[in-house]
Amino acid sequence: MRSRAPPPPLPLVVLLLGGWASLCGAFYLPGLAPVSFCDEGGEKAGCKSKIELFVNRLDSVESVLPYEYDAFDFCQDAEEKRPSENLGQVLFGERIASSPYKFTFKKNQQCQVACMKSYDPENTNDKNKLEFLKKGMRLNYQHHWIIDNMPVTWCYDFGELHKFCNPGFPVGCFVASDGRAKDSCTINSEFNKKNTYYLFNHVDITITYHSAQNENWLGARLVTARLEPKSYKQTDINNLSCEGPPMEISAEFNSKLNLIYSYSVKFEENNNIKWASRWDYILESMPHTNIQWFSIMNSLVIVLFLSGMVAMILLRTLHKDIARYNQIDSSEDAQEEFGWKLVHGDVFRPPRKGMLLSVFLGQGTQIFIMTFITLFLACLGFLSPANRGALMTCAVVLWVLLGTPAGYVSARMYKTFRGEKWKTNVLLTALLCPGIVFADFFIMNLILWVKGSSAAIPFGTLVAILAMWFGISVPLTFVGAYFGFKEKPIEHPVRTNQIPRQIPEQSFFTKPLPGIIMGGILPFGCIFIQLFFILNSIWSHQMYYMFGFLFLVFIILLITCSEATVLLCYFHLCAEDYHWWWRSFLTSSFTAVYLFIYAVHYFFSKLQITGTASTILYFGYTMIMVLIFFLFTGTIGFFACFWFVSKIYSVVKVD
């Protein structure tokens, strides 16, 4: 039974949550140690003058297919270097390489040549390269450049009072045949010729640094890197002016074409920005915080409503039920039993398909622990955007190492269900759900590989993932299952009758399907706003950094799934329907169906994705998310209901 302590007032709850969210936002551990830069000639140990610009993959909101920088015919470094990438970066398709854009600290440069590319209409290879470049402009592909592990941002006015800083900038833009300027062609009135592409072939880069005056370190540290893309029609590579009409590329390729890429760079000092907070200007430009607070308040109202309902049932109705049941001693009164006590001899009867349910519970436990630890570390700042790929790497490694709890929970529950095929149980726990995810992932990877996308996982990485699965995760699952089967089955507080009791005719609302459909609505109501930002970060390539809010929503989701399942479970038991095992799992896991419906709505209303391959990829990856969410929420609901049922039948007297 729950204690009768009054719930804390809403303002106090909001204040505590606000403090936690702000702590998670403020405690920031960047991914790398700071690098100091000195003037040319003044280099010392731990201080360098050369600044390298690295290029990453190009992506688009109109296509799920990212491409390597080298896939487009841009300027390439003669001595190309590729920094080592972690597992998360490889899985997300990041491909970082050095570029020909080299700078010297504090040395301003004006209108420097990066390279020139020539295209001949007679040459098939040139035609294909130019066509691919046009496709990049038509689908609004974005460059992602990096200086000192920091994104080079393009900041522009967004509305009257707001400035938005985008960690990418477009390859170019396209004016359609009807004269409609698409995407970034709207920023310049000179981009007005119909059926014409405009290439951003010049960049003005501004690097801001924090000098070491009155500090205990040498030189200076870079705190921002901004650029402004420009389009100039250059004709003489030896005499650049970086002004004049824009660089037009006609849709019809009939004559020779020379594209000259150029850049300017200038350095500015700003001692107001600290190195540790240098990402803040990007994050602050994203107008999300107010909506996040609305999301938290919305979730809190749902939780308080559900908690009130559950508290009322536990403290009033259940208390009366138990008191009344325990007062009945005489045999004639015993004939007048009704409600949930009637089914005490059947409530712990093992479910049908107990093997599958136990496997789902094992996998769900593994996902729950993985998600909790990953979000907690992210909330503390260990998996910040500066630490590229760390979030995905952490999640995958944790999943591999958490095979033991999966095996243990699955084996223990299967034994409780009186199952005897323990070998099948262990193999299914280790292989069923990960196998489905891997098969889906492999098909998606084949599509990416056929399309030549940078997101295609190299064969070596696929082998490494399989080795981690079969070499670490599967043996750990076997170890967990061994200990699970050695344990005694979970003891139930009441005995199960040999002959099953007949279930009376149920009303519409106590039938399984309506209850399951209703059960998923409230948990989904808690997460749908947060879900919008998560989908934005995945498909619209926006940075996701508010892990404090996400961790709060995660905790609220746990509470909501548990309470909604317990509430419906109580109603069904009162209606003398004792088939609660699968229903408790499916009630909360139905939230995953609403997640899928929302993902379909998001695809058609928010994204401009074109092409069959991109559509298949979107729904393929969405299905992996839905399966993981299905297992996770179902497991939470099941164990909450299992605890509730065990508790209420343990305090009632049964002959």
UniProtKB/TrEMBL annotation:
Record flagged with keyword ATP-binding: no
Principal location listed in the UniProt entry: membrane
Bilayer topology annotation: Multi-pass membrane protein
GO cellular component labels: membrane
Record keyword Protein transport present: no
Transmembrane stretches, start-end: 293-315, 359-383, 389-414, 426-450, 462-485, 516-539, 545-573, 585-604, 616-645
GO BP terms, alphabetized: protein localization to membrane
Signal peptide range: 1-26
Record localization: Membrane
Entry superkingdom: Eukaryota
Pfam families in the record: EMP70
Alphabetized UniProt keyword annotations: Membrane, Signal, Transmembrane, Transmembrane helix
Recorded coiled-coil stretches: none
Record-stated family: Belongs to the nonaspanin (TM9SF) (TC 9.A.2) family.
PANTHER family in the record: TRANSMEMBRANE 9 SUPERFAMILY MEMBER (PTHR10766:SF176), TRANSMEMBRANE 9 SUPERFAMILY PROTEIN (PTHR10766)
Protein's name in the database: Transmembrane 9 superfamily member
Organism: Podarcis muralis
Lineage: Eukaryota, Metazoa, Chordata, Craniata, Vertebrata
